[in-house]
């Protein structure tokens, strides 16, 4: 092998080594994009989630137009949440909101914006309709609460209050302050 052939061989060897090194560096830069540290990692359209108790009985059902999971906050964001909280007699409190957020564990659901609550009538309780805002639902405790204004209407009455707690198990409402109402139109 003469000097010219040895120089050409050395040059080719350097080109091959250089190309390998270059391609290796390019593949490191082309790793798949990772999930944002602050953004969502998944979403679901038209969710219909049924949550059961330890005996396998339906505890509540959560429907939403859209749900997005934010792992960094351990939070689910909901668009158009619609919740049916089951009562032992088979009736359900229906709660609809503009939007909501839920802890991933499902023990807290914050219904944000306008909230519409309906409890059907039963043999012991008449039907009621509640309009309020920003309701915290605690499914494990069978209750919900707000510190916002609430308007409660029934067959023969309308009551306004500031702050309210709803107890799903007993079917009762606790009005916290500034309670005013009318029965059959009388103030």
Quick recap:
With 187 residues, this protein is mainly beta. The chain has 1 helix and 10 strands, in the order αββββββββββ. The protein folds into 2 domains: 31 residues; 142 residues, Sandwich (lipopolysaccharide transport protein A fold), CATH 2.60.450.
List low-confidence stretches. Answer: none
Straight-line N-to-C gap: 113 Å
Quantity of strands, as a count: 10
Assign an overall shape: elongated
**Largest sheet geometry:** 10 strands, antiparallel
Task: Describe the secondary-structure layout.
Blueprint lengths: L2 H27 L12 E11 L5 E13 L4 E5 L2 E5 L5 E12 L5 E11 L8 E11 L4 E11 L3 E11 L4 E12 L4
Word description of this protein:
It contains 1 helix and 10 strands, in the order αββββββββββ. The protein is mainly beta. Strands 1, 2, 3, 4, 5, 6, 7, 8, 9 and 10 form a 10-stranded antiparallel beta sheet that branches.
Could you list some keywords that capture this structure?
187 residues; mainly beta; lipopolysaccharide transport protein A fold; 2 domains; ten-stranded antiparallel sheet; 10 strands; elongated
């Amino acid at each position: 092998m003469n000097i010219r052939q040895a120089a050409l061989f050395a040059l080719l060897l350097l080109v091959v080594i250089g190309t390998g090194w270059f391609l290796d560096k390019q593949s490191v830069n082309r790793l798949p994009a990772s999930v944002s540290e602050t953004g969502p990692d998944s979403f679901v359209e038209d969710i219909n989630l049924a949550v059961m108790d330890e005996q396998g009985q339906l505890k509540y059902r959560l429907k939403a137009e859209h749900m997005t999971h934010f792992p960094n906050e351990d939070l689910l964001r909901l668009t158009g949440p619609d919740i049916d909280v089951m009562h032992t007699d088979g009736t359900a409190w229906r709660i609809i909101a503009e939007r909501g957020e839920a802890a991933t564990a499902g023990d807290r659901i914050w219904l944000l914006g306008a909230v519409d609550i309906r409890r059907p009538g039963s043999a012991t309780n008449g039907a009621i309709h509640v309009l309020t805002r920003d309701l915290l639902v605690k499914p494990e405790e069978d209750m919900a609460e707000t510190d916002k204004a609430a308007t409660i209407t029934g067959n023969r009455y309308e009551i306004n209050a500031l702050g309210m707690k709803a107890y799903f198990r007993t079917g009762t409402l606790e009005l916290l302050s500034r309670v005013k109402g009318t029965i059959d139109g009388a103030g």
